[in-house]
Specification:
It is built from no helices and 10 strands. It is an all-beta fold. It has a single domain, classed as Rieske Iron-sulfur Protein (3-layer Sandwich). It has a 4-stranded antiparallel sheet with strand order 2-3-4-8, with no helix packed on it. The chain starts with a strand and ends with a strand. It binds FE2/S2 (inorganic) cluster. FE2/S2 (inorganic) cluster (FES) binds next to loops.
């Protein structure tokens, strides 16, 4: 069963910067690209590395541990050493709040 959580305010997301928050046992990363927000599990599919808060986040994000790249708009893996997509979550904006649907 899915659960909708309030990630935070739009104003918390800086351009090209990742913001990571914990919800229960999950670490969720959010960044924006072309005025839309994208959410994904803060866990690289290569070896479970977390994305550093300082990671530059555009359409593509690079894992700081071994350099795997992912498309944040759909989670698809773009380069080794990862071979699986990131787990992504639907995002909606309600007023000035970012809502994320977690499974
Ligand atoms: S943990 Fe991300 S590339 Fe290895």
């Amino acid at each position: 069963m899915s659960e909708i959580v309030t990630f935070g305010k739009i104003s918390e997301i800086e351009a090209n910067k990742l913001l990571v928050k914990r919800f229960g046992r999950k670490r969720i990363a959010v960044c924006s690209f072309e005025d839309k927000f994208y959410a994904f599990k803060d866990s690289c599919t290569h070896d479970g590395g977390t994305f550093d808060q300082e990671t530059v986040c555009g359409k593509v994000i690079e894992c700081p541990r071994h350099g795997a790249k992912f498309d944040i708009t759909n989670g698809h893996v773009l380069s080794a050493p990862a071979y699986s997509s990131l787990e992504t979550y639907p995002v909606t904006v309600v007023g000035d709040e970012i809502k994320i649907e977690l499974e």
